[in-house]
Amino acid sequence: MSVCLEAEKALSTERVIAPQALASEWPEKLDIFGIGITPTSYDDATALIVDAARRGESKLVSCYAVHAAITFCSEPQLRDVSNDFDMVTPDGQPVRWALNLLHGAGLKDRVYGPELTLRLCRHAANEGVSVYLYGGSPEVAETLKQNLQSMLPNLKIAGYESPPFRALTPEEDQAVIDRINGSGAGIVFIGLGCPKQDLFAHEHKDSINAVQVCVGAAFDFHAGAKSTAPTWMQKYGLEWAFRLIQEPRRLWRRYLVTNTSYVVRLCGSLLNIPKVLRQRARQARRLSTNK
Question: Which helix H or strand E contains 291, and what residues bound it?
Answer without folding.
Answer: none
